[in-house]
Write a structure and sequence with these properties.
single chain, alpha+beta, Alkaline Phosphatase, subunit A, three-stranded mixed sheet, 10 strands, globular
């Protein structure tokens, strides 16, 4: 999972940069053209991802509202109200119960794994993961791993003068400041691609590549004025690539509407683990489930800004229109 990035890679039509490793995953697997998140900002989105439940159902919809550290640090007397109920297990809890070794690691330039980003709007009653590095998995266990990449937040490499032939989104002013910023963003995708290539190489080296299902996505869209924190496509549409180890469904492109909360039930189904009834996503490979007519996404308080917005996004097959309705903040 990469941060703060929209589908600007080769397999999604971007021509200004080369992303051979991500393109290879898409060539070997399934590329989803209409993948979305249920919230365009980190903590609500990640809270929904790991529970398979809309953040608005959980009460985890306000950004960093229910944590005991960092920006969301609250008063100790409220901590009990932040605890996730036992009736709502994390996806990692379910995999652990089924015998999997679970990890959440932040990938570094050295190839080591630090503590991976969680940023959940709740406190888990038990440690959510067994470790940070999937390579520490005991030989007699399978693993369920999340690997966090800095993504579009990593704009430190400014050596992007070679990126010349690109087109700004039509709603951006064609100004040199914007163009320079867009180049550093595209350059961050090149770094992500190299990191994905390194991870694939590691899986091959230890003999795990041919029995591992790989999911690639971002936590929400690019951090720009119509992206992160907002319900335009630039904020909620994400790349999603799934590669099976046996070439199953290789070179497939799907246009149906999918949500990131679908990944929890999909992962369980692939592992042969029963899907909890309370999940609000569904297994995206279950042919008995009809495609969605629309997806729902929501933005609530982000940092200090209260802006309560909801959207329905239909399958527009490339026209990228969004049905938006501004909900006024109630008086009093």
């Amino acid at each position: 999972m990469a941060e703060d990035a929209s589908p600007h890679i080769g397999c999604y039509g971007e021509t200004a940069i080369d992303t051979p490793n991500l393109d290879a995953l898409a060539e070997q697997g399934i590329r989803f053209e209409n993948a979305f998140v249920t919230s365009p900002v980190c903590s609500p989105c990640r809270s929904a991802l790991v529970t398979g439940i809309y953040q608005t159902t959980l009460g985890a919809h306000n950004h960093r509202s229910q944590t005991d550290s960092g920006k969301g640090k609250a008063r100790p007397q409220y901590y009990d109200s932040f605890k996730l109920p036992d009736t709502v297990p994390l996806i990692s809890d379910i995999f652990r119960k089924a015998g999997y070794y679970t990890t959440n690691g932040a990938y570094s330039a050295s190839g080591e794994y630090g503590v991976g980003k969680t940023d959940y709007n709740f406190i888990s009653p038990t440690p959510p993961y067994d470790g940070t590095d999937w390579r520490d998995c005991p030989e007699d266990k399978p693993f369920f791993a999340q690997i966090q990449l800095p993504g579009g937040k990593d704009r430190n490499d400014t050596s992007s003068d070679h990126i010349k032939d690109f087109t700004l989104p039509p709603h951006y002013p064609d100004h040199q400041v914007i163009r320079d910023d867009w180049k550093t963003y595209l350059n961050s995708w090149r770094k992500q691609d190299r990191q994905v290539g390194d991870i694939v190489k590691e899986l091959k080296q230890v003999g795990k590549f041919d029995n591992t299902v790989i999911f690639f996505l971002t936590d929400h869209g690019i951090s720009h004025i119509r992206g992160k924190q907002f319900l335009y496509d630039e904020g909620i549409q994400v790349p999603l690539i799934i590669r099976f180890p046996d070439g199953h469904m290789a070179k497939t492109v799907r246009n149906d509407l999918v949500l990131h909360i679908d990944l929890a039930p999909t992962s369980l189904a692939l592992a042969g683990i029963e899907i909890p009834e309370h999940f609000q996503g569904h297994d995206i490979f279950d042919k008995s489930i009809a495609p969605r007519d629309f997806i729902v996404s929501a933005r609530d308080r982000c940092d200090e800004t209260i802006d309560i917005i909801r959207c329905l996004r239909t399958d527009t097959r490339g026209s990228r229109q969004t049905i938006r309705k501004q909900i006024p903040y109630p008086a009093g």
